[in-house]
Write a structure and sequence with these properties.
about 200 residues; about 10% strand; Rossmann fold
């Protein structure tokens, strides 16, 4: 049995201040869905899917109703790729769809890289997608494993030897100093502080 045809979700702005701008957004999304179709994918365009429905149910489910985003995520969950089209950065819905795709291992493509080679972020043809997805998944797994591994511990540098004279003897015994050396300034200050002041 041959592998099924991959499904691409088209994400971009829909809501706008005027009906004319909404119509423009729907037509632009449909044009990008057409480009996806030419690559052999099955396009899923929520703009064209829900636009007519929102007009029929305008009073109950207008374009700004939050249920449309919930519906979109339910559709996106069943897709293999997500295509971000022009203006997606200013769309609350498209930004949420992008985050959902990244969290659910759905490959995200950007319209600016659409015609680039697949290894540089371009959209592969449908017949090449499943090999592309396997490679993408392997790379993602390796990055995830590398991010969780602790870096190798570097050996600590040896502390520099002090130029000051070191006391000899065992702990608890009165320290003596090597011949020719005097106690350091700290020891001298301690001795002075312990001396009985003159009356």
């Amino acid at each position: 049995m041959s592998e099924r045809q991959p499904i691409m979700f088209v994400a971009g702005p829909y809501r706008a201040p005027s009906f004319e701008e909404i119509e423009f957004n729907v037509l632009r999304a449909a044009e990008w869905a057409g480009q996806v179709k030419l690559r052999g994918w099955t396009p899923l365009c929520p703009h064209t899917n829900s636009h007519a429905i929102s007009l029929c149910l305008f009073l109950e489910f207008g374009p700004a109703h939050p249920s449309w985003l919930k519906d979109s995520l339910a559709l996106l969950e069943r897709c293999d790729g997500l295509l971000l089209i022009p203006g997606w950065e200013g769309s609350e819905g498209a930004v949420g769809e992008r985050e959902f795709a990244k969290a659910n291992d759905i490959i995200v493509f950007d319209w600016q890289d659409f015609d680039a080679a697949p290894e540089h972020g371009g959209v592969p043809k449908s017949e090449d997608f499943w090999d592309y997805q396997r490679t993408w998944t392997e790379k993602r797994h390796k990055r995830s494993v590398a991010a969780t591994q602790e870096p190798p511990h570097e050996p600590q540098a040896a502390l520099p030897l002090s130029d000051e004279p070191q006391p000899s003897g065992n702990p608890g015994e009165l320290h003596t100093w090597d011949e020719g050396h005097e106690p350091d300034a700290v020891c001298q200050n301690v001795e002075k502080s312990q001396s009985i002041p003159a009356e």
